Inverse folding.
C-alpha cells in the first residue's frame, strides 16, 4: 500500500478474490519512503509468480531471494549483530528509561559518527562535486503548503480499531497477520514444517493464542495466498470487505475490528499562540526546496540546469513502526532537486563520464513478466534503449551507485528497481529505487524520480508566484495571430454583473473562432458570442466594446516550468545496510565465541585510529598525547583507550566499532620512538617511527595507499597482540 | 522575564510602583535561551542606574553601550547589511511565497555552508579535541520526560488577548510598548528630541495612531521609567495589575487586553495513531543526553569525568518572534553535558592549558552595584579568587572564548556575564553567558551553567533508573551502625494490610532511635513503634518479627550522582553575530555606492575559492575544470563563476559572499599555465603556476600561511581587476 491514498497500482492481471477496481487517480507525490521494501511472495509456487510491495516484509517472505550474508559470505546472525550494535551503542531506543517510544531511536557515539561521515561524503560526492545549492529549510511547515502538495489529503495509511480493547491496527498488517496465522495453522494441521516469522516475543505469544492446527480447504488456501500476494493493492474499503468476508478477528479479543479509516501520517502541531495556524512536521525535505526555487535560480545567476540539495530530519507518524532503523518516525533524509529544461530530452553534460558504469537493473517489463532477475547493463546502454527515460535520470542513477560503492555498500547487494507504470504518480515520467539487500530483504534506500513539472506547477498555481524560468531566446520568435482587445472602461458598465462571464467567454475563443468573429465584426459592426448561462446564451457585442485584430509580435523570452529529477536518500536505512554489509565474525584466539568485526572503509569509520598505551604506566602519557595531536593535525580522528583491559580486548572492542587502525605505544616506543600500526581486518602489524606511521595512516585514510602498500614499505611487526599487559 | 515561570529575579532594591513579592521558587531549568539578551535601561540617568533583562532589547535602550560597528570600526548600516544578506540568500523567510510564517527562516546556500562550517569547527574544537561522546537524539519527546524536567509546567511566557480583535499580545512586550509610547508622547510635548525605535514600519504606523503629544506629570514619568527598568521581573498577575493600574490599551482597538495567562512555549503533537501519547518538540537537546547517561558511562568504560555532546534542532513556539535570526521558533543548538564528580572541587585536568587566557568578565557583584564595566582577568585568576566557581566551569569558559575567536568573532565584542544569584535555578552553582555585541545590543549566544546533579536526579527519581556512577573505592570504607532485619515471611501475614506502613515506619527510624529500640527489645522481647494512622498510632512488634543489630560492614563502592557543566550554543545567533562582526564596506572603483565585504576567516567562509575564467571562451573550460579538480583533491571547496558579468562584478559578488580567494584564468594561462590569485580583503593579487597557486591556497585555508607569506613567496600581479572583459 502506498502512502498516498487511493492506491492505484494493481500490478498483475491476477484475479483477486475481491475485485480491485482502482481508478487511476492522481497520487500527488510518491516519495522514496512510500514503497519502501520490495517483497516477493512465495505462497503459491505452482501458480504464476506474483508480486506485491510491502511496507515491512518479514524474513520468511524473502526466502527465495534472501541471501543476506556477512561480509565473508556466511549466514548473518541478526540477533548477534543486533546485540553487538546495542552493546557498542550504535543506536538505542529513545527514552528507554521511560519505557521507550516505538519508532524513535537515538544514535550513540559510533552511530552518530558513522552518520556524520556518510553525510560528509554525501556532501562531497553530490553537493561539492556538482556545485549544488544546499539549503536548510524548516521542519515546521504550515498547513497550506502541504495541502497544495497533496500531503494533507493523501499522505495516509489505513487503520482500524478493535471495538473491545481500543487497540489500533494498521489494516493491511492486520489482514496479513490473521491470514498468515490461518495458513500457518493449516500447515501444522497438514503436518508441514512451519517457518517462524521473526517478531518480538511478546507479539508472538499473543498471537499464538489463536493458533490451533486447523486444516483449510485447498481452495481457501489458494484464495488467502492470492490476497496476501497483493495485500498492498487494496484500499481501505477493500480491506474492510476482506475483514468481513473472511471474518478476520483480533486474536487478542476475538473481535472484528472497525472498518478501516485513513490515518494521515503527518505529525500535526500549531504554530504561534493562537491555534489558527495549523502546521505539520515535514514528511520530506523537498517542499522547502520547491518554494525557494525562484530565489535559488536568481542565486545561480539565472543559469539552468542546476540542483538544490538539503540534508535534514523528516517525520512520519507510523501507525505501528517495526523493523528497527528501517521504519522510524523521525529520520534523516538527504534530497536533491535537479531542475532541468523539459525541452532537449533532459540531456546531461556530464553523462559521458558515467555512461560505461554498469548497474543491476530490474526494469518494469521484467517485473510485469513475473521475473525478478536483474540485468547488468551500462547506464549508457539503458538510456539508449529507453529502459531509463533520459540522460539526467541515468546520470543520477550512476552517481547514486558510485556513492553507495564509495561508502562501502556491498556491490553484490545493490540493484535498481524501476517503478511500475501504475506505481508512479500520473505526472512522473520514470522512477527507480536503489534497493539494498539486507536480512529484511531488499530495502529501498534511495529513490530517484523524474517528477516532471508537477511540484513547481501546483505551488505556482496556488500562490501566483512565478516558479518559472525566463529564457532569453537566441533567435527572437515572431508570432502573428488574432488578438482581442476589450475596452474595459465601457465593457464593464455596459454588461454590469455579466461582464466577467462574457469577457471570459471572449478570451476563451480559439484562433479559428476569432478569425470568424473578425469577419463578422467587419461586416456587421458587432458580433454574437456564445455565453452559456447569460440570457439565452447569445450575447451581442458591438465594435465600440471589442476589437479583433490580426497582430504581429516578437517574443525574446521563453517562459517554462522546469522539470525536477529527485534523488532522495534515507540515511538511516543506508546506515543500517552499511552495517550489515560490513559485518563479519572471526574466531578469537582464546577460542571462545566468535568476535564481531565491522569492516567499514576508513572514510566512513566512526573513528579512524585507536591509540593504545600498553599499560597505565605514566611514561606513556606524553607519547599518547603527542600522537593524538599529530593525528589531529593530519585531520584524522582518533581515540585513546587507556583502560585497564588487555590490549587484545581493547582491539577487539574497536573491531566491533569498526575502527580500521590501531597504534600501540609500548616500552620500545620510549626507547626508540617507534610504534606499531595494526590493520583491523588482517590484524597484521607494522612498526616504524611515529611520523612514518602517522604519514601511513593519513595515506590509508585518504585512500591514496592500501594496506598492502604499507606492508611493503614498513617492517612487519610479529609481536602478539592479545593479552599483553605490563612486561 | 524568564522562560520558566514564576520569575524569581528581582535584581535591585529599587522600589517599584508595584511591589514584587517574588518567592524563591525552584525554576527547574534556565537554559541558554531563557535570558537571551542583557539590556541596560537609560531612562533615568540621574537616578541610580538600574538594570533588567529582556528577551528582545531595542537599539534605543543600548544607546549607552552600543558600539556595534563594521569590521573597520565604522557605524553599522543594518538596513544595508540586511538587504545584502537577503540578496545573497544567506537566509530568507520560510514559505515566503505563501506569505511567510514569522520566526521561521530558511538558510540559502551561503548561510547553509557557513552554518555547516561553524558546526564542523565546533565538532573539531570540542568533540574531537576533548574526546566527547556525540549523540543524536530525537526531537520528538514524550510528555512524561518534559513533565519531569519541569518544562511542561514552567516553560512559558505570559500572554493576553485583545477582547475586540482577538489579537494575542505578549504581556511584557505589550506593557513595555504602551508605556514607551506614552513616554515618547510626553517627550514630544516637552519638545525633547525623540529617538526612533527600530521596528518594522507597519507596526510603527499602527502605534503612532495613539501617539499624540501628551505631557505627563514628572512623578508619572518616573514611575513608568521604573516599571520599564524592571519589566522582566513581573509575573503574570503583576503584569495584569500594571495593565489595570495604568489603563493600558491596545492602540489598534483602544481596548484593555485580558489578564495575562501562561502560554507554554513548546510545540505539542501526538505520537502514534491514538491520541494517548502526547509529545512535544524538544525545547533543548539536553534531555536526550541525560536519559542516555547510564549507557554513555558504560560506553566510556565507566570512566569519569566525561562529556556528551549533541548538535540538533530545537523548537520554541514564540508568542511574537522578532529580531530576525536572534529569536526564532526553530533553531540549531550545540550542547555539551560534561559529567563530573561533585567531590574534589570539580578540578579539570587540562585547566593549566587555559589558565592564562584572559576574558572580559562582568561578574554578579559588578552588576549588583549597577555597573556594566567588564574586568579583563585571566581565567586562572578568576577561579582562584572565586569569581568563577570551579576549574571545570572556568575551563569551558576559556574554551568557548577560543572557539568564538577561532571562527572569527570580534574579540572586542565578547564578554562573559555571570547570572545573578536569583536569575539562576536554585540548584545551579554558577552560570555565565558568552554575550556578543551586535546592532541588537549584547546578545547571549552561549550559556555555560553548572547545573549540579539536578537533571540526573529528577529523572532517576521519576523512573527508578540508576543514573549514577559506582566508583570502586581505593580504600574500602568500614561502617558500623544499627541495622534492622525484618522477617518478611512472618511480618506480612501477621500485620496484613498494615504491614507495609509499619515496615516503612521501622525503616525510617534514626540510628539513635534504633539504639533505644535495641535496648527495649533486649529487655522486653518486643518494641513499640510509632506508626501514625495505624490503630492508636502505637504498634507492638515482637522479636520473632524484627531484629535490631549493631553491624559492621565494609563498602568497596561509592555511589554518586554526577554534576553537570553545560555549555550550550545557539548556532543561529553566533552565525548572525559572526556576519555583523565581519562585515564592512569599501568604496568601489567606479565611484558608485560602497560595496559590502564579509571578511570571514577561510575556515568558516561558505566557499573558499572562486574560479573566474576571463570570458566565456571555450578554451578556458578544461583549465577551469582542472583547477576545480585540483582544489577538490586538496580538500578545498570552490565555485566557478563563468557568467557573463565583468570580472570586477563577479569578484564583488563574492566579496559579499565572503569568499576569501579568487583565481582568474586568462589568455596568459593558456600560454604558460599561470593563474592569478586574489585575496578578498586587500584585493591584491599574485601570479604563478597552477600547482603553486593551489598549494598556496591550501596553506592559506589550513591557516599554516598568511597572505603576507604568499606575497613574499610569489610574484605580485598588478593587472587591474575591474571590468576586464575579452581582450
Amino acid at each position: 500500500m502506498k502512502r498516498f491514498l487511493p492506491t492505484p497500482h494493481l500490478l498483475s492481471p491476477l484475479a483477486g478474490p475481491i475485485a480491485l477496481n482502482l481508478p487511476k487517480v492522481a497520487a500527488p507525490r510518491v516519495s522514496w519512503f512510500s514503497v519502501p521494501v520490495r517483497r516477493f511472495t512465495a505462497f503459491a509456487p505452482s501458480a504464476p509468480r506474483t508480486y506485491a510491495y510491502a511496507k515491512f516484509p518479514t524474513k520468511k517472505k524473502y526466502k527465495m531471494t534472501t541471501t543476506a550474508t556477512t561480509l565473508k559470505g556466511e549466514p548473518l546472525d541478526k540477533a548477534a549483530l543486533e546485540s553487538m550494535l546495542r552493546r557498542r551503542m550504535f543506536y538505542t531506543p529513545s527514552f528507554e528509561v521511560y519505557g521507550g517510544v516505538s519508532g524513535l531511536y537515538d544514535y550513540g557515539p559510533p552511530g552518530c559518527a558513522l552518520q556524520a561521515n556518510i553525510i560528509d561524503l554525501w556532501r562531497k560526492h553530490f553537493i561539492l562535486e556538482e556545485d549544488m545549492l544546499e539549503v536548510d529549510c524548516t521542519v515546521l511547515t504550515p498547513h497550506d503548503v502541504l495541502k497544495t502538495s497533496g500531503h494533507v489529503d493523501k499522505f495516509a495509511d489505513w487503520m482500524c480499531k478493535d471495538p473491545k480493547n481500543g487497540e489500533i491496527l494498521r489494516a493491511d498488517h492486520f489482514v496479513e497477520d490473521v491470514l498468515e496465522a490461518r495458513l500457518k495453522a493449516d500447515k501444522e494441521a497438514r503436518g508441514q514444517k512451519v517457518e517462524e516469522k521473526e517478531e518480538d516475543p511478546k507479539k508472538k505469544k499473543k498471537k499464538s493464542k489463536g493458533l490451533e492446527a486447523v486444516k483449510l480447504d485447498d481452495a481457501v488456501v489458494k484464495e488467502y495466498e492470492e490476497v496476501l500476494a497483493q495485500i498492498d493493492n487494496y484500499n481501505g474499503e477493500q480491506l474492510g470487505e476482506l475483514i468481513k468476508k473472511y471474518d478476520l478477528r483480533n486474536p487478542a479479543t476475538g473481535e472484528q475490528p472497525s472498518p478501516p479509516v485513513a490515518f494521515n501520517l503527518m505529525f500535526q502541531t500549531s504554530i504561534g499562540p493562537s491555534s489558527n495556524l495549523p502546521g505539520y512536521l515535514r514528511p520530506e525535505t523537498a517542499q522547502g526546496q520547491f518554494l525557494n526555487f525562484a530565489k535559488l535560480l536568481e542565486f545561480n545567476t539565472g543559469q539552468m540546469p542546476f540542483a538544490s540539495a538539503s540534508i535534514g530530519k523528516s517525520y512520519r507518524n507510523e501507525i505501528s513502526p517495526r523493523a528497527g532503523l528501517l521504519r522510524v518516525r523521525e529520520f534523516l533524509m538527504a534530497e536533491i532537486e535537479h531542475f532541468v529544461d523539459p525541452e532537449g530530452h533532459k540531456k546531461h553534460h556530464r553523462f559521458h563520464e558515467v555512461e560505461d558504469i554498469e548497474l543491476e537493473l530490474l526494469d518494469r517489463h521484467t517485473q510485469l513478466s513475473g521475473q525478478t532477475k536483474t540485468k547488468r547493463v551500462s547506464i549508457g546502454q539503458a538510456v539508449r534503449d529507453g529502459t531509463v527515460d533520459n540522460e539526467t535520470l541515468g546520470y543520477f542513477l550512476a552517481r547514486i551507485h558510485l556513492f553507495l560503492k564509495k561508502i562501502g555498500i556491498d556491490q553484490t547487494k545493490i540493484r535498481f528497481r524501476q517503478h511500475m507504470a501504475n506505481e508512479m504518480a500520473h505526472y512522473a515520467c520514470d522512477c527507480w529505487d536503489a534497493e539494498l539487500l539486507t536480512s529484511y530483504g531488499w530495502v529501498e534506500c534511495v529513490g530517484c524520480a523524474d517528477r516532471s513539472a508537477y511540484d513547481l506547477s501546483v505551488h505556482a498555481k496556488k500562490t501566483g508566484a512565478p516558479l518559472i524560468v525566463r529564457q532569453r531566446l537566441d533567435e527572437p520568435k515572431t508570432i502573428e495571430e488574432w488578438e482581442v482587445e476589450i475596452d474595459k472602461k465601457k465593457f464593464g458598465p455596459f454588461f454590469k454583473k455579466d461582464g466577467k462571464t462574457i469577457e471570459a467567454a471572449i478570451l476563451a475563443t480559439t484562433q479559428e473562432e476569432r478569425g470568424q468573429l473578425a469577419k463578422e465584426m467587419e461586416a456587421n459592426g458587432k458580433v454574437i458570442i456564445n455565453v452559456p448561462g447569460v440570457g439565452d446564451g447569445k450575447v451581442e457585442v458591438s465594435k465600440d466594446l471589442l476589437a479583433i485584430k490580426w497582430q504581429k509580435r516578437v517574443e525574446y523570452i521563453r517562459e517554462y516550468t522546469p522539470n525536477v529529477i529527485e534523488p532522495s536518500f534515507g540515511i538511516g536505512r543506508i546506515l543500517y545496510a552499511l552495517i550489515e554489509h560490513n559485518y563479519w565474525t572471526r574466531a578469537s584466539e582464546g577460542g571462545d565465541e566468535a568476535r564481531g568485526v565491522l569492516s567499514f572503509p576508513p572514510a566512513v569509520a566512526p573513528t579512524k585510529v585507536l591509540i593504545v598505551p600498553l599499560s597505565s604506566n605514566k611514561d606513556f602519557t606524553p607519547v599518547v598525547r603527542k600522537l593524538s595531536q599529530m593525528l589531529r593535525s593530519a585531520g584524522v580522528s582518533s581515540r585513546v583507550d587507556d583502560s585497564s583491559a588487555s590490549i587484545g580486548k581493547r582491539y577487539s572492542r574497536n573491531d566491533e566499532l569498526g575502527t580500521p587502525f590501531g597504534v600501540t605505544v609500548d616500552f620500545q616506543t620510549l626507547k626508540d620512538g617507534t610504534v606499531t600500526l595494526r590493520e583491523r581486518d588482517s590484524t597484521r602489524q607494522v612498526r616504524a617511527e611515529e611520523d612514518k606511521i602517522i604519514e601511513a595512516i593519513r595515506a590509508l585514510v585518504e585512500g591514496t595507499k592500501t594496506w598492502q602498500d604499507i606492508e611493503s614499505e614498513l617492517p612487519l611487526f610479529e609481536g602478539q597482540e592479545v593479552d599483553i599487559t605490563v612486561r
About this structure: Residues 1-66, 197-210, 721-727 of chain B have pLDDT under 50 and may be disordered. Chain B has four domains: 54-138+282-456, 158-264, 477-560, 607-717. Residues 158-264 of chain B form a domain with the Herpes Virus-1 fold (CATH 3.30.40.230).
